[in-house]
Amino acid sequence: xxMMMENEDLERIHTLETAQATQTATVAGxxxxxxxxxSGTWAVMGAGGVxxxxxxxxxxxxxxx
Length: 65
What we know:
- The chain is built from one helix and no strands.
């Protein structure tokens, strides 16, 4: 009887370890996806800002001629 309890306990521990590892991997994946989305947002904002400045200088150069 005691051996069965130990086997059941080991199986439960293994199940909990697997669930914890899965949860940790899921959280890491979500954080990575959020970081990628955030960096993409900043890249688009940076490109838009550069385009605005270039457009202003081009407009001023064309207006002078």
